[in-house]
Amino acid sequence: MAASRKIPLRKCVVTKEMKPKQQLIRVVRNKEGEVFVDPSGKKNGRGAYISKDPKVIETAQDQDVLSRQLNTKVDHTIYEELKSLAGEQ
Questions:
Q1: In order of start, what are the domains of the chain with their CATH numbers?
Q2: Nearest CA to 45 among 33, 57, 63?
């Protein structure tokens, strides 16, 4: 068996489950306070991970989880973008 690389795990801010990074979408708040979806997962700023599951994203929107995690108001357009990304699976 080849040496398998360690898969980076991140915690979904809604379900609190640890999952491989590929199964999550990262949302970032940068120093300027802008909030955006970061599909690459490499942008600078405060990041929050959310499962690529439309139901989980819906829950996050209902409970405004990302606003709490990122300490700023997260616009509904961010949730729309997340839903479209989750729908592509």
A1: 9-87 (3.30.1230.10)
A2: 33
